[in-house]
Amino acid sequence: MTKFLEVKNLSVSFPTEDGLVKASNDVSYSVDLGKTLAIVGESGSGKSVSNLAIMGLHNRATTQISGSAFLNLDESPIDVISAPEETVRRLRGKVMSMIFQDPMSALHPYFSVGNQIAEAWSLYNEGSKRDGMKRATEMLDLVGIPSAADRVKDFPHQFSGGMRQRVMIAMALVNNPKLLIADEPTTALDVTVQSQILKLIQEIQKEFNMAVILITHDLGVVAEVADNVCVMYGGKIVETSAIDEIFYRSQHPYTTALLESIPRVDQFGSHRLKAISGQPPSLIGLPKGCSFAPRCQFVSHVSGNRCTTEDPELTEKAKDHFARCFLSTEQIHSLTGRNVKA
Amino acid sequence: MLKYVTRRLLYTAILLLIVSFTIFYIFDLIPVDPARLICSKQCTPDLVEANRHRLGLDVSVLEQWWRFIQGLFQGRTYGEGGVEDIYCGAPSFGYSFNRHECVSTIIADVFPTTLSLTIGAFVLWLSVGVSLGVLAARKKGKFADRASNVFVLVGTSLPTFITGILVVLFIVLKFHLVNPLELGDWKNPITDPIGWLRTFFFPCATLALAYAATYTRFTRSNVLEISSEDYIRTARAKGLSEKVILRKHTLRAALAPIVTIAGLDFAGLLGGAIITEGIFGLSGLGKLSLKAVLETYDLPIIVATTLVGSAFVVIMNLIVDVAYAYLDPRVRT
Amino acid sequence: MNSENILELRGLQKHFKVGGAFGRGKTLIKAVDGVDFTVGRGETVGLVGESGCGKTTVGRTVMKIYDPTAGSIIFEGEDISKLSRREMKVRRSKMQMIFQDPYASLNPRHTVGTIIEAAFIIHKIEPTGGRVKAIQELLEMVGLNPEHINRFPHEFSGGQRQRIGIARALALKPHLIVADEPVSALDVSIQAQVVNLLDDLQKELGLSYLFVAHDLSVVQHISDRVVVMYLGKVMEIATTIELFANPRHPYTKALLSAVPIPDPIIERKRERIILTGDLPSPANPPTGCVFSTRCWKVQDRCISEAPVPIQISPNHTLACHFPEGTSNS
């Protein structure tokens, strides 16, 4: 069965003076229409770069990209990595759209929000400027901006942070794309506004049957909206599976450590947080072996020095559950105690 | 927006009144007595006093200033108590007893020259600076960028008076592109555009060079900075072509600050015009005021040219602010 | 006053005048508008609320970075609200601040040693055993290698830089630390390290913390008591367990329900209170209760009359006319 987006062995590297930055390393994932894939990772884990590559937003002259990313369109599948730049450009905003973290800097300060939405619309639709503004008003209404008709000519600085993100969503969705990539869409927002925006994205996804890739560092947000999860570390996917598998039967020490290190509002008590020692790796000249090995508390449970000499492959540990670890399922579950029946 | 413009207009009018009074006050403080200067060899205190009355200097500064302002709007009669009364119609900037002409006539005579020079230079430097800057930014690190960098270095390191002398030496005297006898001849740009170009192209270019270089550098860095903004990435994510992104999104944001600086530089150009006019033998506002100060101490002309110069700055400021508010919606309040 | 309190705020106000040329069109922003709460000795008080609620302003006013418009700040039994900068200098060694962005708050041209030493120089302190030894001890205390004393801030990671900020704050042996979003700029896997460090230091040195943050999960973990602010006013104050298990103010309830929990099954069952609309402008706050424009329980009284904070139980203070009922949990 083919899914709407299928990413295979996608690598993105940036040559710099200090060496080659392997920002995204042999990454594969897929997402289907109507589903949400969450890509979780810390800063520098490479969670954004592969998606920017799918959108064709890297400068091809200064970026090394390999692998493939097929959009299975009705007409015929297109590999957006190898397709000509012009072809990919004609897919942007129409088939695939992206929204970003900071809605203030992502909107042009000199143009009215209606103008910016109408511009995106008129790229793929015949119609006058007035039709564009009419469509913009409809979109603003759809994303829940009160009295949209009055506000369509307002400028981004006249909106609050949450409203600006709504404007971004309206702009991204004006041509009914099939894929929405949301890069930390709520990180810059307050928590009550965050839940509004997440709810909005979910509603619109249902209405238009979109595939959504949600890039985030917040496992709470993942738990709230995702169907499938990719956990990234040091430019690689270390674990990927359906959401409950990840949260309740995690097979990678990084995922379990991350889940245990974050405080939760629903768990009281002055227990000490289980911090992950050390620092995230630099993406230049990654160490030999597993990138998480320097911070992993289970290294000694793997025979020999395998963790520091050999990089584990992403292997299927359970049905549709892949992890990059030498430990067997039984070993890791007995070590972490994470094998909860849902 | 309308409210903003009205408010700014009001401020500008008040500012101009204050500036004009300050000019009168400063020249009153200067210990040179024009009444004595125009007095002949057999000068008596009575004659000086009569002169002073004729020049209108026998009243308080405030009164002098007020009469001047009235003259601006109503026209004014000069030479009271002298042989003849002279009337200069509105707007009257005073009367030069030295040249026996209304100052407004004198200024009207030289103003087109100065305006040709400044506007010509302005258009030249803006078009060269901005297009070269955009080109350099788009071809960053390539030949065009490096070549424009050489231009920037040369342009910013050559003072205008050196450029002017070099231009005269090579273009006029060596290559005979302009007949030295025609140098500085006023030609009407509407009836004789070729002649006008011949007179003004090289002075304008001389004046424009340093500015064009600065603007190239400024535009380049602005375009590069804006290109890395998030909203340019958004524009790309929408599927816009690079051409539209540059023309609509990048340039709009990159050029807005240039408008501000360009307006103020344009106003400040009068200072530079004095040098350029001198080198190319143009008789413009700069030459007029220089002569009035250094040779004849013709107070009405000095006051009028100073006032025109400062009015120019103040009004350009107004235009810049309004233009900026038009360009950047965040400023409008 | 209660001698157990290291800090007591009484009717604290901080108003800012913004905008307007030629003295016209100025608007008054009531960033903090009458705030009362205390911080006990050795206690951690979390100050939470969304952006624009005034929590950061409270922290900075306590530090006298801003002069309060009205009200008093009683620190160790003395009202410091009207002290001059010079008079504050002595007291300031006893209250220190940790900032959100560890990189922006460290001078990039100075070594770690110089940065920490500055505290000794300004306050003319000569620690026993010499400054270098004292600095190395501080570095060790915050979990950094004492040999890195001559390194520059850019040579450290974000989490390590926050440790430097903490070491600097500890140099003068303060009694109170105002921490302004100390972990929100850090990576998830690093946040726990710094939270644990703050915990350990508190136990070791008997510090009191005023912990200003927007992340309720972190606040819940670190605080003994929590103050919830909205639009410059205190909505609710309670011990952490009381507040999180039994929120009485509708705003607190909405805030808590909005925090995602990293547990998909719980998330699927949870009912969210989605607040409509945006935070009103602090320049033009609603009449009556400031939360009335977004509250789902709003009644006429809320618009006509602002509720005052009332102590409803020994460890619970509330400013609401129609509080939520006590739940059984």
Task: Map the helices and strands.
The complex is a heterotrimer of chains A (342), B (333) and C (329).
Chain A: E1 5-16, E2 19-31, E3 36-40, H1 49-55, E4 64-72, E5 77-79, H2 85-91, E6 96-99, H3 113-124, H4 129-142, H5 148-151, H6 161-173, E7 179-183, H7 191-208, E8 211-216, H8 219-225, E9 228-233, E10 236-242, H9 243-248, H10 253-261, H11 306-309, E11 315-318, E12 321-323, H12 329-336
Parallel strand pairs in A: 3-8, 3-9, 6-7, 7-8
Antiparallel strand pairs in A: 1-2, 1-4, 4-5, 9-10, 10-12, 11-12
Helix pairs in contact in A: 3-4, 3-6, 4-6, 6-7
Chain B: H1 2-29, H2 34-37, H3 45-55, H4 61-74, E1 76-78, E2 86-88, E3 95-96, E4 101-102, H5 103-138, H6 143-157, H7 160-174, H8 193-227, H9 230-237, H10 242-280, H11 285-296, H12 299-327
Antiparallel strand pairs in B: 1-2, 3-4
Chain C: E1 5-18, E2 27-40, E3 44-48, H1 55-62, E4 70-75, E5 78-79, H2 85-92, E6 95-98, H3 112-122, H4 131-141, H5 158-170, E7 176-180, H6 188-205, E8 208-212, H7 216-222, E9 225-230, E10 233-239, H8 240-245, H9 250-258, H10 264-269, H11 300-304, E11 310-313, E12 316-318
Parallel strand pairs in C: 3-8, 3-9, 6-7, 7-8
Antiparallel strand pairs in C: 1-2, 1-4, 4-5, 9-10, 10-12, 11-12
